[in-house]
Amino acid sequence: MNFLLLNLKVNPKSDNLVTKKESHKKREIKKERQKKERRAVARLYENGI
C-alpha cells in the first residue's frame, strides 16, 4: 500500500489520474475478494465446518 502512495507523489499530474483510477480498481478487486472470503467462511460455519 505504501508503494501506491509513493507512486502517486512521484508521478507528474497527468499520470496522477490514471494511477488513482488503477488504485481505485485494485481497491474494488480487494473488496470483492474479501466479500467472497466472508461468504466462504459463513458457508463453513453454516455447515458446521
TrEMBL record:
It comes from the Bacteria. This is Uncharacterized protein.
